[in-house]
Amino acid sequence: MAREMLKGNVAMAEAAVRAGCEAYFGYPITPQTELLEYMSARMVELGRVFLQAESEVAAINMVYGAACTGVQVMSSSSSPGVSLMQEGLSYIAGSDVPCVIIDVMRGGPGLGNILPSQSDYFQVTKSAGHGDYHPIVLAPASVQEAIDFTVLAFELARKYRHLVILAADGQIGQMMEPAELPPMQPYPQPRPSWSVTGAKGRDKNVVTSLYMNADDEEAFNIRIQKKLSVIRAVEQRSDEFATEDAELLVVGYGTSGRIAMSAVQMAREKGLKVGLFRPQTIYPFPDRRLKELAEQVDMCLVIEMNAGQMVEDVRLAVNGVVPVEFYGRMGGNIPMPDELLRVIERYYAYSSVLA
Amino acid sequence: MTTVTIPIEEMQLVYDRPEALACTHTHYCPGCTHSIAHRLLAEAIDELGLREKTILVAPVGCAVFAYNYFNMDGVEAAHGRAPAMATGIKRVSPQNTVITYQGDGDLASIGIAEIIHVAARGEKITTIFINNAIYGMTGGQMAPTSLPNQKTTSSPLGRDVLTTGTPLKISELMSQIDGAVYVVRRSLHDVKHIRQAKKAILTALRVQEANLGFSMVELLSTCPTNWGMTPIDAMGWVESAMIPAFPLGDYKIADSVRELG
Question: Tens digits of per-residue pLDDT, A52-61?
Fold first, then answer.
C-alpha cells in the first residue's frame, strides 16, 4: 500500500471499512461530519449498512442493536453528540457487546465550538455513561495513528467484547497528511455464538444489561472489573522520545502530544534535557511506564488542550514522586511549539532547582 | 351416574402453550392483559413459523422481562429506544423477523422520536404497542395516553388538560407517516376483540415478512393494579372510557397490504 494524502476523518472511515466494519450509524456534527459523509457513499458501494439516524441517541441504540447480532459496528460523533450517546454507551458496556465509537473532540462545555479540543478526556475515560466501567480509549496523534488505532479498535472490541472509543480531536479529524491505509480484512466475520441471530437449532440467546437480583448484578460487575483488570495489564500503550536522560518529562497525548514533541525537539536543540511521554491508550492509562519514568526525572509537565483532565491520571501514576505541573489551552486554541518551548524552559529551570 | 374414561391418546388437544411462549411464570399482576398480548403474539409467530428467526426487542416498563417469557432470541432496549435498536438489528440481519413490544410510556413519551422515525424510514419491523393509559412498572404515574381527569399517582386530582395536555393518539399520528403501511388499533377487553387483535398481529407480521414497511398494532390494555380496579372492572373501563377516547379501527392499510389479502 502506498502513502497518500488523507484527511483524518476520511482516513478513519476508510480504515474502519478495511478493518471489516459491517454497519455504520451516525448523525452529522462538526468536526466529524466528513466521516459520516464518506461512509454514506463507501459503505453503500460495498453493500454494507450505512444509516443516518434521527439523533445521536438513536444512532448509538442502532449501534447497540447491531452489536447484539455480533457484527462489527461503529458510530462517530463529536463531544456534544457523545454526551447524547452516553445512555447507549452504558447499555453497551452493561451487555458485553463490542463496538467502536470515534469521538472527534471539540470545544465545550455546552454547545462550545467546533474547534479542536481535548475536552472529552473525562467523558470518554471516566464517565461514558452511568455505572462502573471504562471504555478502552485510544488517542491518535497523527493521521497514520488514527488509521492504525481504528483497526486496533475493532480488534480490541472483538477480543474483549467491549466498547472502544477512539478519542481524536478536531485537529486530527480535519488535517491532511501522508498516511498508509491497511489492506482489506476478510469480510464478514462469522457471528459469535452469544449473538442474537434467531434461535434456530439452539436455545435462545438473550442480550440484556438487566440483573434484578443484587448478587447477579454484583457478579456481572465483578466480571466487568476482571475484564478491565486484564485490559489494564495487557493493553497499556505509549510512545516516548528522548526520555533516557530527561530531567523534565513532558506528558501529552493526541494533538497536544504531537505539538509537545516539536517543543521537546526544540528544547533538546537548546541542550535542555527534556523528554516526551505520549499515552496512546488513555484508558487503560499507561501508568506502569510513567511510574518508571517518574523515578528518573525531576518533574512532569502535562500539556493538554483542556483545563487539566489527564493531569489527574498523571498525578495518580506519579504518586507524589516528583512534582506534576500543568499547562493547557482551551476554547479551541491550539498551543504553538514556541509557546510550549517557553513553558518548558520556565519549568525546566524550576526542575533544575528541585534537583 | 356412570363415569366414562377416555384414554389419553383418544383425547383431542384443543389448547396448548405456543412453542414461542416460554414455559415460565411471569411477574405480571393478576388480570393484566400483557399475558393475553404475549400469548397472541406467540400464537401468531408459531402460526407463521417465525419463532426460529425472530428477535424480540423488549422495552423498559412492565414488559421489561418479555424476553424471558418468549422462547426466542431477545434483547433489552433502553427506555424508548426499542425502535432504534430494532433498526440496528434489522439493517444488519434483514433475514430475521424483528419485533418491538412497547408500552405507552416507552413508545409515546420518552421514545416518541424513535417510533416516528422508525416508521418514517419504513423499517421492516413490527411494533406491538400496549396502551393502558398509565405507567405500570413505576407504580401508576400519568402517561401521555392518560385520559382527561384520570387520577394517577402523579395527577392525584385527575389529569388537568390545561396544564398536561390531552392523550396522544398514537395510531392516528403514525398513520400520517408514509413508511408505516399497517397501523391498527385493537382492544383486549373481551373475547371478540381479542380474536380481532390476534388477526391484526398476524397481518402485521405478514407485512414484515413481505418487506412492505413498518407495521404496528396498538392494543388497548388494562392495568387493574394501578387503575385501582378489579380485573373485570378494568375490562369494563377499557370499553366504557378508553375506546371512546381511542377509537378502534384500521388507521392505515396501504394498498400493498391490501394486496397481501
Answer: 999 999 999 9
**With 80 as the cut, is the pLDDT of residue B50 above it?**
yes
**By CB neighbour count within 10 A (0-12 exposed, 13-18 middle, 19+ buried), where does A93 fall?**
buried
- The Cα of A198 is separated from the nearest Cα of chain B by a number of Å equal to 4
Question: Measured between beta carbons, which residues in chain B are less than 8 angstroms from residue A40?
Answer: none
- For the residues B136-161, what does the mean pLDDT come to? 97
Q: What is the pLDDT of residue B1?
A: 65
In this predicted structure, what is the pLDDT of residue B126? 98
Of the candidates B52, B58, B113, which has its C-beta nearest A200's C-beta? B52
A279-292 average pLDDT score: 98
Could you give the angle at which helices A287-296 and A310-318 cross, rounded to 10 degrees? 60
The chain B residue lying nearest A198, using CA atoms, is: B53
A54 to B117: CB separation less than 8 angstroms, yes or no: yes
C-alpha distances in Å from residue B230, one per residue of B25, B63, B148, B227: 21, 21, 21, 9
Q: How confident is the model at residue A352 (pLDDT cuts 50, 70, 90)?
A: confident
No. of helices (H) and no. of strands (E), chain B: 12, 7
Q: What is the pTM of this model?
A: 0.96
Q: Which CATH code for domain A3-188+209-234?
A: 3.40.50.970
- Dmax over CA atoms of chain B, in Å, equals 69
Out of B76, B95, B96, whose CB is closest to A209? B76
Cα of B8 to nearest chain A Cα, Å: 30
Q: List the CATH code of the domain at A239-354.
A: 3.40.50.920
* Cα angle value A293/A299/A300 (rounded, 5°): 70
Structural domains of chain B ordered from first start: 27-260 (3.40.50.970)
Does the pLDDT of residue A198 top 90, yes or no? yes
Mean pLDDT of A121-146: 97
Considering only CB atoms, which residues of chain B are within 8 Å of chain A? Answer: 51-55, 57-58, 64-65, 67-68, 70-78, 81, 84-89, 91-93, 95-97, 113-114, 116-117, 121
